[in-house]
Design brief:
Layout lengths: L1 H30 L13 E5 L6 H17 L3 E5 L6 H8 L7 E6 H10 L7 H4 E10 L3 E4 L8 H10 L4 E5 L5 H13 L3 E5 L3 H9 L5 E4 L1 H9 L3 E5 L25 E8 L4 H15 L2 H9 L3 E2 L4 H22 L6
Parallel strand pairs: 1-2, 1-3, 6-7, 6-8
Antiparallel strand pairs: 3-10, 4-10, 4-11, 5-8, 5-9
Length: 337
């Protein structure tokens, strides 16, 4: 009897060990990566930019892409798919698999202005794309002029433009872009007439202004180095406050209260991105944006790291979408494609 009593606890312990072993096996099978579900990413990630090389989205994309490989363990490749003010790139990413390997680097124009500007959009940006994370923001655009323009300050420019015949031509990064909206707002507030000449990105617009093809440009990243070099004359900024880069430049709102325009750049995927890939991307992007040399690179291009939650970023997108719906209607901009 004593032998049986001694053996029963041992058998219970053995059964418990077998049960725990079985549970461990099942949990291991459930939690282990399944075929086709290896930890993201297992191949290079493509960053699709809808505007020309040298513009703010391209600059932000290349700064970030240079920092991602050590963190992701895979290459990050920047591809420029230019055309239709970013719509070509937007459609390309929206129709890609939502697996995190094809991502869109978009400014707010592509997400919040194009849908109101174009009579026919290739995709519904609010339904077919999903925000992953913000990358950068620009608190100021800069109004610059070619040296041939005699105006030495903003007030002189307004007076000169008001009397110019034919009207002064200004460059923007594209029809319906924030740059276009900014100048149309200025035209309305100041009562001046300017001729809009759209280009396919900030770099081509800057090149045209430097060459004297147009007299005026309003730009962000493309303007900073040119203004610093003195090749174009900066007259004013579009933000709420004066720029720390050019503190002597007034903001247009000092002359026309309520005038303000800023912008952002973010990263998007096709709708339906799985949580694991999205979380990994956001985590690594957060590390990149916190790097001092990334902040320095952004600042030199007139950009600021934009760190925010996905929910806050989504809310800003919705707010800007509604704001630009009213502004596009106000200026009468429309593309019948």
């Amino acid at each position: 009897m004593c032998g049986n009593q001694t053996g029963e606890p041992a058998r219970r312990i053995l059964r418990a060990e077998k049960t725990l072993l079985a549970i461990s096996f099942v949990l291991g099978a459930v939690l282990a990566p399944q075929p086709g579900q290896a930890q993201y990413p297992t191949r290079p990630v493509r960053l699709i930019v809808g505007l020309a090389p040298g513009g703010a989205p391209d600059i932000a994309a290349r700064i970030v892409a240079a920092k991602l490989p050590p963190l992701l363990g895979q290459a990050a490749i920047v591809e420029n798919r230019v055309g239709s003010n970013g719509n070509i790139a937007t459609e390309f990413v929206a129709r890609a698999a939502p697996d995190g390997y094809v991502l869109l680097i978009s400014n707010d124009s592509m997400m919040t202005i194009n849908p109101h500007l174009y009579a026919k959009m290739p995709v519904d940006v609010l339904k077919d794309l999903a925000p992953v994370a913000p990358l950068s923001q620009t608190s100021n655009f800069f109004l610059t002029v070619h040296p041939s323009v005699p105006a030495r300050n903003f007030q002189e420019f307004i007076e000169y433009a008001r009397n110019a015949n034919p009207p002064l031509a200004y460059a923007s990064v594209g029809h319906g872009s924030q740059h276009h909206m900014a100048m149309e707002m200025l035209k309305t507030r100041a009562g001046i007439n300017l001729l809009h000449v759209p280009y396919k990105g900030g770099a081509p617009a800057a090149t045209a202004t430097l060459a004297g093809e147009v007299a005026v440009m309003i730009g962000g990243a493309s303007s900073v180095n040119i203004m610093t070099s003195g090749k174009l004359r900066g007259l004013a900024a579009t933000g709420r406050r004066r720029s720390t880069l050019f503190p002597d430049l007034p903001v247009i709102g000092e002359f026309y209260p309520g005038y303000e325009l800023s912008t952002w750049i973010g990263i998007f995927s096709a709708a339906g991105l799985n949580d694991a890939a999205g979380s990994r991307l956001r985590g690594e992007l957060g590390k990149v944006l916190a790097m001092p040399d990334v902040a320095k690179g952004f600042t030199s291009a007139g950009l600021e790291p934009y760190i925010s939650t996905r929910e806050e970023f989504s809310e800003r997108i919705r707010s800007d979408y509604e704001k630009y719906a009213k502004l596009v209607k106000l200026v009468g901009a429309r593309i019948d494609n």
